[in-house]
Amino acid sequence: MFNRSVAEESLNTAAQAVSEIGFCEIEDRYLAVNGQLSPVPKRAPLPLDRDIRRLDGRDSVLPCAKPGWRYALFTLNLSRELYGCLVLSAARPPRLTQLMQLRAVAGTTGMAHARESPGEQSTDANGQSLRRDDRDQRLLSLSATVQELEDHVRIRDALDQGATPDLGDSDSSERLLAEILSRLTARPVCIEDAFGHISAAAGTGSRRPYPRLAAAARSRTVQLWLASGAPVPEPRRLVAPALSRGEVLGAICMLETDRPFSAGEIFALKYATRLLEIELSHRRSLVKLELRLGRDLVDELVSGMDSATAVVRAKALGYDIRGPQHVIVAEWQPPRADDSVVVALRTTFLELHLSAIVSSRSDMAVAVVRGDPLGAELFPVIARTLRSATGAVGIGGPSLEVAQIPRSFSEALRAVHIRASSIDRFGATRFDQLGIYRILDTAGGKPDLAGYVDQWLGPLQRTDDSRGSELVHTLAQYLDHGGNYENTAESLNIHRSTLRYRLKAIREITGFDLADPEARLNLHVATRAWRLRRRGAPFHGP
Q: What number of other Cβ atoms are within 10 A of residue 219's Cβ?
């Protein structure tokens, strides 16, 4: 049975509760009388009246003649009988949590007054009689729920804004995520990679704050996470793994302090982990795409392709194939079944600011690199990235044209083969530093006498050609006589002071130390090969 006084009181109570919320104003009121909504106090009819009646008790946004927000909020009793309607307005639309708060206030006040009306007894979902003080209790519960929702929105907004900048910069994006999560929760935070190594941290100091879990323990943590959907307690921390199709990409760890973990902190940890999953999955997808496109181009470059096609294909990948290029080959022991060596090479080139395209070929990684990569810098960075120094890297000679890239690849293979077969088999070797090994180890091909002689004697030959001097012949005689000044000068029929002058010029032109045993050996072999050259066909180039 409809009770007008209860409906009026319900509408007034709802109006007071809405006013206390504070972000909107009450523009108009309607009371349900005999099933019809009428404005209170009475006034002349307006087009708004027709809009309100058409809604038939359904909360809805109303047309607004000026910029802003206008809304119809209805109050109902437990039997869904209409009590009235409030027309609200605000300068801007409310947040979702504010709108939920409005609807909850209207529903709570309507039900509370319905329980107080004569001849009516209300029941809750369990069929038990509701007491008069239920209203206050439910309002408190509602307020707590709204506060929790607002906290969640605040956490999501902060983490979303922090995750937006530069997805491609792995170090900065993970560090920023850790810093924001630590600031939101006032707790130390660590982000781990797929192997349990800390890749970013905030609020932890310089030392690792907890021991790294073994592989079996990390697998158990993932199973507990999948089973419960909640962060897993581990020594000194809560762990939330970041997964993609069942594969572990990383994890976020929130460290213990002197207070227990709150529900808001756990929500923030789970939401941050979801953002980390998106970031790491995105990054992995980009790497796989670039690897697939780069693999095809690298394979064709080291096998031989025409320059025009290479320029167009490389440009599509953002790589400049023009200018000096070196081919690099890397092998690691034990052989890796995945692309970890390829990824490590890419990471290394980024760190050293070298432009490169990388591929895999059999059990090795192959890269075409622009510029002049230094093996002494290259190997330590790759080893640090892989956390293993059990590998060999070969660097081919420079190729000034696309057509020379296969030759650089062949040289890189020989360099890595010689390194892997030597006593010191782990490290980097440049082909132009192989010395006598260039003619001792032919890898099934012809000895590279021309290149070898040019490497050690080329500058002297070119000086002799331009000046008409005999520096190569002087060096050959000096080495043949075991470095004896007296015998060398006598064989050349020159004074010892002239010999000293020539040897000084040889050192300055070549840059070699004639007292170094390895340099002496290579120079001696090169002069012997020089003597065997055919007339009119010198080993050195023009």
A: 13
Angle, vertex CA 448, rays to CA 514 and CA 435, nearest 5: 30
Q: How many CB atoms lie within 10 A of CB 50?
A: 9
Cross-strand pairs, 429 = 394
What is the reported pLDDT for 21?
Answer: 78
234 DSSP β-pair partners = 237
What pLDDT is stored for residue 534 in this prediction?
40
* Sequence letter at residue 533: R
pTM for the full model?
A: 0.43
CA separation for the pair 428, 415 (Å, rounded): 8
How far is the C-alpha of 170 from the C-alpha of 166, rounded, in Å? Answer: 8
Q: Cα(66)–Cα(472) distance, rounded to whole angstroms? A: 95
CA 428 to CA 88: how far, in whole Å? 74
Sign, CA torsion 321/322/325/327: positive
- Strand-pairing partners, residue 31, are 38, 84
Structure tokens at 138: 């439910």
> Which residues lie below 8 Å from residue 29, measured CB to CB, with a gap of 6+?
11, 15, 39, 40, 84, 85, 86, 87
DSSP 8-class letter at 399: B
d(CA 201, CA 179): 7
Residue indicated by tokens 């869904």: 80
Tell me how far apart the alpha carbons of residues 476 and 92 are, in angstroms, rounded to a whole number: 92
Return the number of other C-beta atoms located less than 10 Å from residue 390's C-beta. Answer: 12
User: In this structure, what are the phi and psi dihedrals at residue 484, rounded to the nearest 5 degrees?
Assistant: -80, 120
Say what the pLDDT of residue 119 is.
45
Segments of 60-157 assigned E as strands = 60-61, 69-76, 82-90
**Mean pLDDT per 10-residue segment, the chain (542 residues):** 77 84 88 86 90 87 84 80 89 79 69 49 46 58 71 84 54 85 93 89 87 89 90 93 88 93 92 90 73 76 89 82 91 85 88 88 88 79 90 92 92 86 84 73 60 86 90 90 90 91 92 88 84 51 39
149: tokens are 């929702």
Return the bridge partners of 359, or none.
366
User: Which pair of tokens denotes residue 289?
Assistant: 């795409």
Phi and psi at residue 399, in whole multiples of 5°? -120, 115
Q: What angle do CA 386, 392, 394 make, to 5 degrees?
A: 120
**According to the model, what pLDDT value does residue 134 have?**
59
pLDDT at 162: 66
